[in-house]
Amino acid sequence: MAEPPPLQALIGSLVFYGRFAPSFTRIGYIARGLPFRPVKTPAEGEVWLVTGATGGLGRAAALRAARRGATVLAVGRNRAALDSLAAAAPAGGIVPVVCDLSDMRAVAALPAAPELAGRPVDVLVNNVGVLIRDFSRTPEGLETSYATNLLGHHVLASGLVAAGRLARGAVILNVVSGGLYSVPLNTRMLNIPEAHYNGFAAYASHKRAQLALADHWRGRFADLGVRTYAVHPGWADTPGVQTSLPVFRRLLGPILRDAHQGADTIDWLAAARPPEAIDQIWFDRRPRPAHAFAHTRQPAATTAQLLDLLNADAARLGLRTA
Ligand SMILES: NC(=O)c1ccc[n+]([C@@H]2O[C@H](COP(=O)([O-])OP(=O)(O)OC[C@H]3O[C@@H](n4cnc5c(N)ncnc54)[C@H](OP(=O)(O)O)[C@@H]3O)[C@@H](O)[C@H]2O)c1
User: Fold this and answer.
1) The ligand 1 atom nearest the CA atom of 126
2) Catalytic: which of 29, 146, 203, 229?
3) DSSP state of 75
4) How far is the CA of 223 from the centre of ligand 1 (A)?
5) Is residue 29 annotated as part of the catalytic site, yes or no?
6) How far is the CA of 118 from the centre of ligand 1 (A)?
7) Helix (H), strand (E), coil (C) string for 178-196
8) Which regions of 100-180 does DSSP assign to beta strands (E)?
9) Quick check: 49 and 121 in contact, CB under 8 A?
10) Between 20 and 30 A from 263 (CA), which of 55, 59, 116, 315?
11) What is the pLDDT of residues 120-131, one digit of tens each?
């Protein structure tokens, strides 16, 4: 996708940030969070799988679950960071699982990993997400953020179900972003070729597609009684924001949420399991409309086309998904 002209981009940014900054930052959390009670529901006996658990929101969500008594399969590619996470949690609460989540064959192998050999997963948090400014390709030939943010989530959820590793009545949480408000569902913006790559548009499009996937899985995995939610954490000061959005962070740093405030609705949803809402995102413990601008209500692709793309890309790597 070509970059918009500078003035148009500036106006677009001002409209977007002006509209959402009060709500998505700590200001919104404090205003809405006054009546929130800490999540204390015991999670003993629950098995969680959290992707991208080595830092930011994933780390916070994993710690919160482990402190409520869950056993958390914490997936990341940095062994030392996983060990440090385990050391910060109650003994045995965190089980480190090393995996590069941009490597689709490695993700497909996760359900058979020895660390997952116990009880099936009760709570799957598809948290890993990256905004990559400069185009890069994985050794498997996929644009890296597409593989990490979207295809991997599909490969993992499908693989867990196929292997009988997702528990009956499990909860799946797809961590989306307010960035989805800027784009409609569009399969052409998912595995973007180098010549047209724009990291922001790619990231926003992956997030819109994650929402569609959450709605799709609800029906697809209905026989398991699975509950699926798309959850927006707000804007939190995390390592990912620090490296991918330095200007944004410099401007809004003092009012960004901390990682635990960002992870609050993830933790709350897994405990409260409220009725699901189609084409809605959960934010600060309530479902909110998934559209803020008229143009995103006109999708450029259907969910069926999204599934065709994901399944075809997985099949090219010899992986079966559904
Ligand atoms: N922070 C926000 O304001 C915000 C707002 C809206 C949505 N979100 C969403 O929330 C989720 C978490 O964001 P975050 O800000 O917490 O991100 P983050 O600070 O970058 O943390 C993500 C974690 O994922 C890991 N990771 C990245 N690529 C990986 C890979 N290929 N394999 C294994 N691990 C990998 C990173 O570890 P490495 O050190 O190995 O890279 C990092 O620890 C994302 O889906 C993001 O889109 C965040």
Assistant:
1) 45
2) 203
3) E
4) 31
5) no
6) 26
7) HHHHHCCCCHHHCCCCHHH
8) 121-126, 166-175
9) yes
10) 116
11) 999 999 999 999
Spatial contact of 127 and 53, defined as CB atoms under 8 Å apart: yes
CA distances, 245 to each of 10, 41, 43, 115, 239 (Å): 16, 35, 35, 34, 10
Pocket test for ligand 1, best of 77, 155, 183 (most atoms within 8 A of CB): 77
Cα-to-centroid distance, 76 and ligand 1 (Å):
10
From CA 62, how far away is CA 58, in angstroms rounded? 6
Domains and CATH numbers, the chain: 25-31+41-316 (3.40.50.720)
Model confidence pLDDT, tens digit, residues 175-191? 999 999 999 999 999 99
Distance of CA 299 from the midpoint of ligand 1 (Å) = 27
Give which of 69, 50, 70 is closest to 60, Cα–Cα.
50
**The CA-based dihedral angle spanning residues 297, 301, 305, 310, taken in that order and rounded to the nearest 10 degrees:** -90
Write out pLDDT tens, residues 90-135.
Answer: 999 999 999 999 999 999 999 999 999 988 999 999 999 999 999 9
The reply to whether ligand 1 has any atom less than 6 angstroms from the CB of 148 is yes
Ligand 1 atom closest to residue 240's alpha carbon, by position in its atom list = 20
Q: Is the CB of 102 under 6 A from ligand 1?
A: yes
CA dist 309 and 315 (Å) reads 10
Distance of alpha carbon 53 from alpha carbon 127, whole angstroms: 8
- Is 77 near ligand 1, meaning CB less than 6 Å away? yes
- Rounded Cα–Cα distance for residues 178 and 140 (Å): 29
Q: How far is CA 107 from the centre of its chain?
A: 15
Predicted TM-score (pTM) of this structure: 0.96
